[in-house]
Write a structure and sequence with these properties.
216 residues, signal, redox-active center, Thiol:disulfide interchange protein, DSBA-like_thioredoxin_dom, Thioredoxin-like_sf
């Protein structure tokens, strides 16, 4: 009887991560795509405003971003390989999003761009149409124009392109949306249940963040 109670106590004392280990499996729920982790904890979504799946996922992405542990940043990296628009126009959209995020309007502008393309089915014909949409969100035209040409925004957009090319070449990035935790773990989207996808995704992200914390 004593051994029984000891066993029950040990089971109760097991950390929650032990149960997470049983719930999430490498190769089924996530893939290891790099040896090193990013300097700071992060979740990065590779996406395109022209991607229907990304449009459907956007509300989930914004909700998940609000549920991350303190100090963990949710980043979005726009890709330019969708054939619905030229790479140049897609680069403009990437920079427009970066400007909006810098000004604290990232989520609102992202939703507006998605709606323009997918809900209203009125894709952008040129850079001026993108500018007009962004300015509707209480962003000053002069501020927008200056930021679009700034070294920081252009550098961030170039970094998106650099990462896209490297991940595409290594065949890690074959479609969007794609989520990567700490630059090391690629989440396998099809492993997530449709009925409770957001909750399961949050659990998986937290598990991967904790996995790095334990090994760092």
């Amino acid at each position: 009887m004593k051994k029984f109670f000891v066993a029950c106590f040990l089971m109760a004392a097991l950390p929650l991560t032990a149960f997470a280990d049983a719930k999430f499996e490498e190769g089924k729920h996530y893939e290891v795509i790099a040896e090193q982790v990013t300097p700071k904890a992060e979740v990065k979504e590779y996406f395109s405003f022209y991607c229907g799946g990304c449009n459907a996922f956007e509300p989930v992405a914004q909700s998940v971003a609000q549920k991350l542990p303190e100090g963990v940043e949710f980043k979005k990296s726009h890709v330019d390989f969708i054939r619905a628009a030229s790479p140049e126009l897609q680069n403009t959209l990437a920079r427009a999003y970066l400007v909006a995020k810098k000004l604290g309007k990232g989520d609102k502008v992202a939703s507006a761009i998605f709606n323009q393309i997918h809900r209203y089915r009125a894709p952008f014909a040129n850079e001026q149409e993108i500018r007009s949409l962004v300015l509707l969100h209480d962003i000053d035209g002069e501020t927008y124009d200056s930021a679009m040409k700034s070294f920081s925004v252009r550098g961030a957009a170039n970094q998106m392109k650099k990462e896209q090319d490297a991940l595409s070449e290594s065949r890690v990035l074959s479609g969007v949306p794609m989520l990567v935790v700490n630059g090391k773990y690629k989440i396998i989207n099809k492993s997530l249940g449709q009925s409770n996808m957001e909750a399961e995704l949050v659990d998986l992200i937290n598990y991967l963040l904790e996995k790095d914390a334990k090994t760092s």
